[in-house]
Amino acid sequence: MSVAEQSAISARGLTVRLGGKIIVAGIDLDVAEGSWVTIIGPNGAGKSTVLRAIGGLLAFTGRVELVGTPVDKLPRRERARTVATVAQSPVVPPGMRVLDYVLLGRTPYIPALGRESAADLAAVAEVLASLDLEELTDRRLDTLSGGERQRVFLARALAQGARILLLDEPTSALDIGHQQEVLELVDRLRAERGLTVLATMHDLSTAGEYADVMVLLAGGLIRAVGPPREVLTEDLLATHYRVRVKVIEGERGPLVVPVRG
Amino acid sequence: MGPWRDKAVLGVTAALRRSAGRGDRSAGEAVLRPAGLKPGWLVGGVLAVAVALVAGVAFGPVSLPPGSVAAELLNLIPGVRLHSGLSEREVAIVTELRLPRVVLGLLVGAMLALAGAAYQGVFRNPLADPHLLGVAAGAGLGVTAVIAFRSTAGDATSNLPIGVPLAAFAGAIGAVALTYSLGAAGGRSRTPATLILAGVAVSAFLAAGQTYLMQRHVDSLREVYSWLLGRLATAGWHDVLMILPYVVVTGAIVLSQRRALDVMSVGDEEAMSLGLHPQRSRYLLIVAASLGTAAAVSVSGLIGFVGIIVPHTLRLLAGPSYRSILPLSVLFGGAFLALTDLLARTVAGPSEIPIGVVTAFLGAPFFVLVLRTNHAVAP
């Protein structure tokens, strides 16, 4: 990571306390513009917490800057135009259509007492086309399958027009086919739109194929940072996940396979 | 009220359902029609209010021809001079006796329905209502306290003591304030559910106080009940003028938040990430809705179920967007209560059924219907 370029995301000494307990401490992180950084770690490591703090959704101490500006100094609407978060289990409002759900992503552009403009509708149409959701535009969100819904959640985030995308466990509710589909989709969008992606994943099998940089978080502290092959090692995973694995060098990155003893 | 009117209403409703919502797609071109208030529904709402107004004024112990009533109502607009054919006495019945009552019904109905819809949006629960946060219990306690105090002070024969509306208002606001401060004691971990639980606790506590007072002052029971069951009986415009500013102000505040409510349907954290300030919107909505409901309760007693029946029916017919539900609740809520009041005072001959009883009779089966067909209630 070149220090000379301005990072899309820059965190220094990020610490989050919830209910008096320290969840993550002293997190230093740089995410270069246009890159894909994945945070991995066992359950309870604090991955979601880091993501939510970076998105400005949690109180924290330390410094978090998005494209050079401290996230807690950004007015809400501008923050929403800078960074978009897809939550781990997004709420599915009953009865809402796909179109209206994706249109929610334009909230930071619609005046408080105003209505959506033609530009907003055009942005939504473009995102729906890009994610192959045109057929589903009038369908109710709560009637879609898991894979379709995940595309819709992504669509809303993209409609925000933000250059930074935070994805909290984007594949955990999906079957193996849809997992790959979503990750491929995110990678394609990243290339097409010059997005910066920061994701958390707890499924390691293919995580190494998509990230430029991986961060291993355990017990609220960063234990390793670097390209996937340096972080996805049998020793590190054994130590922090307490799992026995075999790491295979694939064409696009290291593949992690758990093996019985 | 003939069968022709029921058929017309059904026909209009069906037509509105068909026209509301699907975007047209001409060859290859997709026209995106986002959710929002469709003109067809707006017209339907205005029509419903007009029908309720004319019917409410025309029918009663002295039945007046609807056409003449409509003409006389139009005469109220400055500059309009229509010959309605009504005698001077009949015109007086219209403008001094019946019209204030119907207008009060429209205003109270609009306020209760709007407040109910606002609460349903804030708590993401189709069965939420200001009565949940203690409005009913607080008003009831205030009213009982004043009536009981007056009976011990020797003024048991006074009809509609002036202190009662104020006591109802103060009691309702006090109860909501208590609920809110109790709910806020949960600190950062507070969720909308905490507030409802606080409301349940406060309501139970205040209701216990009320029961105690009623037991100690048994002779005031009848008066308390006549208040608690709700009534729109009013002569002259005093009550209407009293409630009008509250309805206008709280109505404007609540309506201003309709897009915010749609965004808040994805929960606080996601709404924040979309650039909204959900806590501020929620606070505004609860305060405005509670204030408006307290004003309505102070004037008309406790009329339940309107805040649930009307918004929920609109949600089923016109879609889940609050940009439809809120404005339509104002129109259809008013029409609903005015027509229910018409029912309450004509169905049982010259005597009147308390309107709270009628809405409860309509509401209980409605509740069952909601529970049976309810889609997911968002957490």
Features:
heterodimer, A: 261 residues, alpha/beta, 6-stranded mixed sheet, 4-stranded antiparallel sheet, 8 helices, 27% strand, B: 379 residues, mainly alpha, two-stranded antiparallel ribbon, 15 helices, 71% helix, globular
Description of the molecule:
The complex is a heterodimer of chains A (261) and B (379). Chain A has 261 residues and is an alpha/beta fold. Chain A is built from eight helices and twelve strands. In chain A, the strands form three sheets. In chain A, strands 6-7-8-3-9-10 form a six-stranded mixed sheet, with helices on both faces. The longest helix of chain A is centred in the C-terminal third of the chain and has 18 residues. Chain A is globular. By secondary structure, chain B is mostly helical. The relative contact order of chain B is 0.16. In chain B, helix 4 packs parallel to helix 9. Chain B is globular and about 60 Å long. Chain B has a two-stranded antiparallel ribbon. At the A-B interface, helix 2, helix 3 and helix 4 of A face helix 10 and helix 11 of B.
Question: Mind sketching the topology for me?
Answer:
The complex is a heterodimer of chains A (261) and B (379).
Chain A: E1 9-18, E2 21-31, E3 36-40, H1 47-54, E4 61-66, E5 69-70, H2 76-82, E6 83-86, H3 98-103, H4 118-130, H5 146-159, E7 164-168, H6 176-193, E8 196-201, E9 213-218, E10 221-226, H7 228-231, H8 234-241, E11 245-249, E12 254-258
Parallel strand pairs in A: 3-8, 3-9, 6-7, 7-8
Antiparallel strand pairs in A: 1-2, 1-4, 4-5, 9-10, 11-12
Chain B: H1 3-19, E1 25-26, E2 29-30, H2 39-58, H3 66-75, H4 88-123, H5 135-152, H6 163-184, H7 192-216, H8 221-228, H9 238-256, H10 258-264, H11 268-273, H12 278-300, H13 306-318, H14 322-346, H15 355-373
Antiparallel strand pairs in B: 1-2
